[in-house]
Amino acid sequence: QVQLVESGGGLVQPGGSLRLSCVASGFTFSRFAMRWYRQAPGKERALVAAISSGGGSTNYADSVKGRFTISRDNAKSTVYLQMNTLKPEDTALYSCKAVGPGIYWGQGTHVTVSS
């Protein structure tokens, strides 16, 4: 059974940090590129960051460049999103997506940035 399970979300003050994790199971994680998306209330889902299957290539939305870092550990079938200098506009539901021989989505984890 394919699963992607996100964790690490929560409430954080502006300027703070969080690290999201997405643990995969039920498929060969190392064959899949991974992406983090977010959907803010009342807005469409948007791509935040992407990483290649081997981890050697990454891409970021302009709005998070220099603040967020995507990484992966294929031995642990996990992709991470380190989020620093968080802003209220980063508040959203963050979901991971696996792209490869199939496409799989996680359920998401909520991030709220507020004082």
Q: Beta-sheet strand percentage?
A: over 45%
Q: If you compute it from the alpha carbons, what radius of gyration comes out, rounded to the nearest whole angstrom? A: 13 Å
Helix percentage: under 10%
Distance between the termini: 40 Å
Number of continuous helical runs:
0
Regions with little confidence, pLDDT below 50 for 5+ residues? none
Order of helices and strands: EEEEEEEEEEE
**Shape type:** globular
Structural class: mainly beta
Major β-sheet profile: 7 strands, mixed
Average pLDDT taken over every residue: 97
Number of DSSP strands? 11
Protein model, in words:
This protein is mainly beta. 0% of the residues lie in helices and 52% in strands. The protein has no helices and 11 strands. Strands 2, 4, 5, 6, 9, 10 and 11 form a 7-stranded mixed beta sheet that branches. The chain has a 4-stranded antiparallel beta sheet with strand order 1-3-8-7, with no helix packed on it. The radius of gyration is 13 Å and the shape is globular. The relative contact order is 0.33. The mean pLDDT is 97.
What's the helix and strand layout?
Blueprint: E1 3-7, E2 10-12, E3 18-25, E4 33-39, E5 46-51, E6 58-60, E7 68-73, E8 78-83, E9 92-99, E10 103-105, E11 109-113
Parallel strand pairs: 2-11
Antiparallel strand pairs: 1-3, 3-8, 4-5, 4-9, 5-6, 7-8, 9-10, 9-11
Summarize the structure.
The protein is mainly β.
Characteristics of this structure?
seven-stranded mixed sheet; four-stranded antiparallel sheet; 11 strands; globular
